[in-house]
């Protein structure tokens, strides 16, 4: 018994040390280097958080002291990370920069954007032995990753066939392979790492092997495909990476339950471009109303920051799922992938009323009342909020299935790169289901977000602004203040407004269209109060200035949110500051 307690204590101490390593690099590297070897900087950052444990919550992280919004809690470099399959030939496997044929490669790093001029290469570099599965943006990155990649290369070459034959996920097994390589490197004393290693150093892979696998609750079909793939995969592993099939399956389960997506660190999209194992980040529990967020950075780094002020003793939580999806969908996703049933404050039935967002995200309107305020919601037992008429779960699901089918048909056209046909299909979807679904239904938010992207592709920026406004109105109800994704949507909205303002000035678009579609409805998403009657469509300068003022206001709102979500020195904040200064001048 005493030995068991001792082992638990030693394990807790190691995880606390892992957490503190991330805390001590929570300030920027420049601050640590300029303050007498990091002494003052570490004193500021040490003691921010502590590791706690309970039967109800398991291992979790609490604030040691009061923390302001926008505080760097800690940063972690993944024990291992990989790119998703469709991103393999689009990004550098080492630094995650977008690939370019240019001599100048832009690297966004630790809150800064630096331009590295590479004279030893004139275009992106691919590994000749991997059959277009491994690319780098420069010889520097290729050289830095060479010692690691040389070990995995022979297996990577055959990995598409191995995973396809078993119907297993390619990224899952490539990440599994990357972990095995890291584990071998850490036990091989003769291994010499490449230059330009990330800061802080990657988390030791031993922490990955200690994560819970949840194998017993894994989906049987998924487990069967992983088992079949593991048998073939094991035969391709070199002796130094050999692992019993049962342990390969267990590691795959650990990855499935504990990996984190890596969002595009360049900020050009809000899409996942890769996935990695971040054992320190994994110690933060989930909440659908999080007080922290993690931000992807270059070289497989993750930074955890506070979104709002946090009291001493308060638990630090992040979100594992899309917050703009209905409660039952979020809970189902968490149960399937993370193996727990969410009981956070937002999901608790006691906190859901007619006016709360989770009563609206998947609500259908009452056919009898014909009012946007009269609806049936799964979170309210399918009773109409006005007349108390009740529909069955099956009736609600039938309506939802038909709506999802129409929405997905439109999205398929978008994925097939037919933006004009996609917009038409989405408009038909909105027209048909506007009398059926609640105005804040998540399918409407998703539809307008995709329509905005389609309109941009078609250079219809006036429409893009209108679609974007709908998304911003909806998202603001469902995500925390300073949510990174919401800030990025504001930046795109500002860009579209700026383009429209310039187009008005250059007589590319009609002022009447801009006044009616943008200026007359601007007050709902900005502090500027405008009225269509305030503008003479013939006065192009006045209309152009009004739209550019809206763009400036959107950039400023984005910047305030990004300062909290990303930090003052992050490349995204520097980008918005540059746009604000340019428009003001």
TrEMBL record:
<dbReference type="InterPro" id="IPR046341">
    <property type="entry name" value="SET_dom_sf"/>
</dbReference>
<keyword id="KW-0863">Zinc-finger</keyword>
<dbReference type="InterPro" id="IPR002893">
    <property type="entry name" value="Znf_MYND"/>
</dbReference>
<dbReference type="InterPro" id="IPR011990">
    <property type="entry name" value="TPR-like_helical_dom_sf"/>
</dbReference>
<feature type="region of interest" description="Disordered">
    <location>
        <begin position="1"/>
        <end position="53"/>
    </location>
</feature>
<feature type="domain" description="SET">
    <location>
        <begin position="47"/>
        <end position="321"/>
    </location>
</feature>
<keyword id="KW-0479">Metal-binding</keyword>
<feature type="compositionally biased region" description="Basic and acidic residues">
    <location>
        <begin position="1"/>
        <end position="13"/>
    </location>
</feature>
<dbReference type="InterPro" id="IPR050869">
    <property type="entry name" value="H3K4_H4K5_MeTrfase"/>
</dbReference>
<dbReference type="Pfam" id="PF01753">
    <property type="entry name" value="zf-MYND"/>
</dbReference>
<dbReference type="Pfam" id="PF00856">
    <property type="entry name" value="SET"/>
</dbReference>
<keyword id="KW-0862">Zinc</keyword>
<protein>
    <recommendedName>
        <fullName>SET domain-containing protein</fullName>
    </recommendedName>
</protein>
<dbReference type="InterPro" id="IPR001214">
    <property type="entry name" value="SET_dom"/>
</dbReference>
<dbReference type="GO" id="GO:0008270">
    <property type="term" value="F:zinc ion binding"/>
</dbReference>
């Amino acid at each position: 018994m005493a030995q068991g307690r001792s082992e638990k204590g030693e394990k807790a101490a190691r995880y606390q040390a892992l957490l503190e390593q991330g805390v001590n690099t929570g300030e920027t590297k420049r601050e640590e280097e300029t303050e007498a070897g990091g002494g003052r900087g570490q004193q500021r950052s040490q003691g921010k958080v502590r590791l706690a444990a309970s039967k109800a919550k398991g291992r979790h992280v609490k604030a040691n002291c009061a923390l302001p919004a926008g505080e760097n809690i800690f940063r972690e470099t993944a024990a291992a990370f990989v790119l998703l399959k469709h991103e393999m030939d689009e990004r550098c496997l080492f630094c995650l920069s977008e690939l370019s044929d240019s001599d100048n490669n832009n690297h966004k790093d630790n809150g800064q954007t630096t331009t590295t001029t590479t004279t030893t290469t004139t275009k992106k570099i691919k590994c000749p032995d991997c059959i277009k599965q491994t690319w780098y943006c420069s010889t520097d990155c290729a050289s830095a990753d060479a010692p690691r990649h040389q070990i995995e290369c022979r297996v990577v070459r055959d990995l598409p066939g191995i995973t396809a034959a078993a119907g297993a996920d390619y990224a899952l097994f490539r990440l599994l392979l990357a972990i095995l390589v890291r584990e071998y490197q850490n036990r091989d004393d003769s291994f010499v790492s490449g230059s330009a290693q990330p800061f802080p150093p990657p988390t030791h892979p031993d922490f990955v092997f200690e994560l819970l696998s949840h194998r017993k609750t894994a989906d049987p079909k998924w487990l069967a495909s992983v088992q079949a793939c593991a048998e073939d995969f094991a035969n391709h592993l070199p002796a130094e990476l050999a692992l019993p099939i049962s342990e390969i399956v267990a590691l795959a389960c650990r990855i499935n339950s504990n990996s984190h997506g890596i969002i595009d660190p360049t900020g050009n999209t809000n899409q996942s471009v890769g996935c990695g194992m971040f054992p320190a980040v994994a110690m933060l529990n989930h909440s659908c109303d999080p007080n922290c967020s993690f931000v992807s950075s270059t070289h497989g780094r993750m930074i955890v920051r506070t979104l709002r002020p946090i009291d001493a003793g308060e638990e630090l939580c992040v979100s594992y799922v899309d917050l703009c999806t209905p409660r039952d969908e979020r809970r189902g996703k968490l149960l399937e992938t993370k193996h727990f049933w969410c009981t956070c404050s937002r999901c608790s039935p006691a906190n859901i009323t007619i006016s709360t967002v989770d009563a609206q995200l998947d609500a259908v309107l009452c056919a009898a009342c014909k009012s946007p305020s009269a609806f049936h919601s799964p979170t309210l037992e399918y009773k109409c909020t006005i007349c108390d008429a009740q529909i069955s779960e099956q009736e609600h699901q039938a309506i939802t299935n038909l709506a999802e089918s129409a929405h997905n048909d439109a999205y398929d056209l978008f994925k097939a790169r037919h933006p004009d046909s996609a917009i038409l299909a989405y408009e038909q979807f909105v027209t048909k289901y506007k009398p059926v679904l609640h105005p804040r239904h998540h399918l409407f938010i998703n539809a307008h977000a995709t329509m905005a992207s389609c309109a941009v592709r078609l250079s219809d920026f006036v429409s893009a602004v209108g679609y974007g406004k709908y998304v911003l109105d909806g998202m603001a109800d469902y995500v925390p203040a300073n949510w990174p994704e919401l800030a990025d949507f504001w930046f795109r909205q500002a860009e579209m407004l700026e383009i429209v303002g310039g187009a008005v000035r250059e007589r590319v678009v009609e002022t009447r269209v801009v006044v009616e579609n943008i200026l007359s409805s601007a007050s709902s998403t900005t502090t500027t109060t405008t009225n269509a009657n305030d503008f003479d469509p013939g006065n192009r300068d006045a209309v152009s200035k009004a739209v550019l003022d809206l763009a400036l206001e959107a950039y400023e709102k984005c910047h305030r949110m990004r300062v909290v979500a990303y930090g003052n020195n992050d490349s995204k904040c520097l980008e918005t500051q540059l746009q604000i200064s340019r428009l003001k001048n």
